[in-house]
Amino acid sequence: MSQVVGIIGASDKPDRYAYLAAESLEKHGHQVLLVNPFKESIHGKLCLKHIGESTVPVDTVTIYVNAERFKNHLDSIIESKPKRIIFNPGAESQESYETLEKNGIEVVEACTLVMLNTGQF
Q1: Closest C-alpha to 116, from 41, 37, 7
Q2: Is the model's pTM score more than 0.70?
């Protein structure tokens, strides 16, 4: 089933996991929303400053920023009401999990790339 997936910490560097995740998500048929407040676009694709700028409902948000940077995105994620949020290795934000879950958002600590490659996404 195709999903709309927001990537917080989207990157234009091919050696970054966020970049690889964007490619893999698209190859698996998902619509990708790139979120990076420091970039206008990545490879010609518009970057959002925060997930709340999306004009379409977001199913999943996958995180590639550290806990400190994540704090800047928490409110817009809650307002966007995704079904789940995936914290990739190194992006864990324990202090945010309870808040997200209280707002009906499933919290998953996992690697998006592994999930896609093993059919668990």
Answers
A1: 7
A2: yes
